[in-house]
Amino acid sequence: MADTTPPPAHFSCGCAFGGGLGRRSFVALLGGAALAAGGLREAGAREGVEVAPPSQLSKLVSAQQVEQAAAKQYNDMLGQAAQKRALAPPGHPQVERLRFISERLIPYTYEWNPSAKDWRWEVNLIGSKQINAFCMPGGKIAFFYGILNELKLNDDEVAMIMGHEMTHALREHAREQMGKTMATRGAIEIGSALLGLGSGGRLLADMGGQLLTLRFGREDESEADLIGLELAARGGYDPRAGVSLWKKMASANSRAPVELLSTHPSGPTRISDIELNLPKVMPLYERADKPGRRFGPPPAAASTPN
Asked: What is the pTM of this model?
């Protein structure tokens, strides 16, 4: 299968380190009480990781419109890959592997976003050397062959990536970013925006066309790490693989720039945060039903997903 480089596919890997208002500032702007009311149960009321309540900024944008835009961009990307013979077929061993792992994690996503029960989850493999993966709103997942082949990921490490990317969709980080942009641009006619009318509607349409290039902030990336860790553990995958995964990423990046690391924070801080949270998820992993099948990375001789 020929290599291809589809449209920039780092949607759910995005991270912005620049200035601007953070989530806490927007909480103050929109009302901290409303944010707290929409969050998960208070810390200590559940077993697993602890994260801040989801941002109410996401509610400024229609989930249906965002998911429709994501589905269109995802299908367009798959169509382009298929034309270049770079879309792995359903029977490909690595596609079967990715879909098997995703099916073990998906049932545990519903607590984090009840709408996930109604999503039409999709998982595909793109024949590109990029070390990258993403999950768009509505559960549209893609892995690039390079991340499996170059890093020689085991199933536990794949599950760490899968859970991380799923979290971006579950916590609606794209909607939050779009809502933040609408607020800072002064798009205050929210009703018009939700109906696709007026300047707010045009802004939403413009941003909907940029889902593959949105960048997420440091808080979103940290949240994706932690919730992804829990999703993988509940699915029966060893969360300690989060440490080995990011060490592999750092090693690969030292040899050549890694696409995923261009938008993901890395380094000792990230690994230490994962290690700090391992005691919260190891009991979940130890009690979880373990996968009935184990897969391996692509064989050494394979360079593309034929």
From this structure: 0.77
